[in-house]
Amino acid sequence: QRQLVESGGGLVRPGGSLRLECVASGFAFYNSIMSWYRQTPGKERELIGSSATPDENAVTENSVKGRFTISRDNPKNTLYLQMNNLQPEDTGVYYCKKEGSSGFWGQGTQVTVSS
Q1: What angle do CA 8, 88, 105 make, to 5 degrees?
Q2: Which residues contact 43 (CB under 8 A, 6 or more apart)?
Q3: Residue 62 DSSP symbol
Q4: Could you give the 3-state DSSP secondary structure of residue 87?
Q5: Per-residue pLDDT reduced to its tens digit, 82-112
Q6: What is the β-pairing status of strands 109-113 and 10-12?
Q7: Do residues 106 and 97 touch, judged by C-beta distance below 8 A?
Q8: Is the distance from CB of 89 to CB of 40 less than 8 angstroms?
Q9: How far apart are CA 21 and CA 76, in angstroms?
Q10: Is 42 in contact with 59 (CB distance < 8 Å)?
Q11: Which of 4, 56, 75, 81 has the largest count of CB atoms under 10 Å?
């Protein structure tokens, strides 16, 4: 069965960093467009950015450009989200998603930025 398993979330102080990891199984990860989303309290789920190939990664959410980086390791079937200089407003649930007509979501992982 298709599966996306996320890890790496947790509690971090403002200015700190986290790297989220999404391990995929049950489908051809190497030719799948993958994305990171997040949902903060009281807001709709928003797209952070996407990865099409190891050389085609883009963060599209303006508030995190320059702080977040998306990458992928196809041999490991893994998508990454490196988050630097985290701020309290980054607190929320972060989701991995396979895009397209056969797309589906991961379970999400909590990120909390607090002193």
Answers
A1: 40
A2: 92
A3: G
A4: coil
A5: 999 999 999 999 999 999 999 999 999 999 9
A6: parallel
A7: yes
A8: yes
A9: 11
A10: no
A11: 81
